[in-house]
Amino acid sequence: MAVALQTLVAEAERYLASAKIHDYCPNGLQVEGRAQVRRIVSGVTASQALLDAAVEADADLILVHHGYFWKGENPCITGMKRRRLSTLLSHDISLLAFHLPLDVHPEVGNNVQLARLLDITVEGPLDPTDARVVGLLGSLPEPLSPRDFARRVHEALGREPLLVEGEQMIRRVGWCTGGGQGYIDQAIAAGVDLFISGEASEQTFHSARENGISFIAAGHHATERYGVQALGDYLARRFAVEHLFIDCPNPV
């Protein structure tokens, strides 16, 4: 079956409530392709590798978490950007991108999906006083040592995480996928035993060590593979179209 592109885009925007979220890039349809969608290819980032794979898979629409046109970037269509846009336009493929709306959604969001994968019970926002903080707070069904939890992350994500090991058992957990390491201060204030993010900054080590908590950096790409898959599956069910997730490996 096929669905009109604009119908699919409108439903994705409604479902994610994307118009209500202030972001660093345009959310929604970033590049317009053919009018009908039969096959969606999803991936984390609209890299050239994903675009080429989507062309090979005969996609009508590419759905991603990391799209184009970020605030502050050079707006000129040259080099890498020209090649990417040329691929989309020459094959009449649409690009649909959702950044923060796909981090915060309570069903298909990256943070909720990571919690399900790691068996963390979501208890609420990491910082209920600040809606700009997109991380979550939760707990484990039973306490684990930092190394045991790091092994769980490794098994679930297929990538060995960076671990700053604290002394206490892990019960309460705060997390923010992707580049959310800067929220470690909110996690410490919330009284967690462990904070998880995708990336780490130099000062993250010192914050964790000096405040007596554990910290795991599990990979920006690795922690954000699951929201876009869940959204793609939702749209495929909603409109009876095909959906294929393509993972283009990224060690960061």
State the helix count.
Answer: 10
| Main sheet characteristics | 6 strands, mixed
What's the level 1 CATH class of the largest domain? Alpha Beta
The CATH superfamily title of the largest domain: NIF3 (NGG1p interacting factor 3)-like
Strands, count: 13
**First and last CA, distance:** 37 Å
Strand content: 15-25%
Count of discrete structural domains: 2
Structural class: alpha/beta
Low-confidence parts: none
Element string (H = helix, E = strand): EHEEEHEHEHHEEHEEHEHEHHE
Describe the 3D structure.
This protein has 252 residues and is of the alpha/beta class. The chain has 2 domains: 117 residues, Udp-n-acetylmuramoylalanyl-d-glutamate--2,6- Diaminopimelate Ligase, Chain: A, domain 1 (3-Layer(aba) Sandwich); 120 residues, Udp-n-acetylmuramoylalanyl-d-glutamate--2,6- Diaminopimelate Ligase, Chain: A, domain 1 (3-Layer(aba) Sandwich), CATH 3.40.1390.30. Helices cover 37% and strands 24% of the residues. A 6-stranded mixed beta sheet has the order 7-8-10-11-12-9, sandwiched between helices. Strands 2-6-5-4-13 form a 5-stranded mixed beta sheet, sandwiched between helices. It is elongated. Belongs to the GTP cyclohydrolase I type 2/NIF3 family. Keywords: Metal-binding. InterPro entries: DUF34/NIF3, DUF34/NIF3_sf. This is GTP cyclohydrolase 1 type 2 homolog.
